[in-house]
Amino acid sequence: MGKEALLVIDMLNDFVEKGAVLEVPSARKIIPQIKKRIEEARKKQIKVIYVCDAHQKNDKEFQNWPPHAILGTRGAEIIEELKPGREDLVVKKRRYSGFFGTDLDLLLRELEIKKIYIVGILTNICVFFTAVDASVRGYEVTIYADSVATISEREHKFALRQLKDTFKIKVTE
After folding, report:
1. For residues 51-72, b (16+ Cβ closer than 10 Å) or e, as one string?
2. Which of 29, 54, 56, 64 has the most crowded Cβ, counting Cβ within 10 A?
3. Total structural domains in the chain?
4. Domain with 66 in it
5. What is the tens place of the pLDDT at every residue in 73-124?
6. In whole angstroms, what is the distance from residue 47 CA to residue 50 CA?
7. What Rg do the C-alpha atoms of the chain give, in angstroms?
């Protein structure tokens, strides 16, 4: 059996804090569950990897979204409740998938990771694209449904159903 990793996606100040530029109110509700998953992973010696938006000031993504998670700003920092530990790793991304234009795949292969667990936000965007990209790269992927969130319950449920039914990704209930 291969090694495992927990990916914590975009639990950043610009998404989680009240009044943040791209606030996801439901993200605050999953913090305790994510914290528990991180603690469990560390106890089992499962590698914890934070996958975080980190945009340039003039990023083309800002044509669709307000400027957010700009590299070097407080908004791009991981929320205080989930700060990485000494052994954890951080991968910065500029697009929805943690694999696009990053060294995440290389890192996972160097660590001999075969199985990935995913928590964080947004279920229908960054979690979704990262999970699908992981799956098509041959990783066994599990999404913890109680540890991911998005703007609306309808989009959350639709994304989880798509991941499960269309892409055959394991989604815990």
Report:
1. bbbbbeeebeeeeeeebbbbee
2. 54
3. 1
4. 3-172
5. 999 999 999 999 999 999 999 999 999 999 999 999 999 999 999 999 999 9
6. 10
7. 15
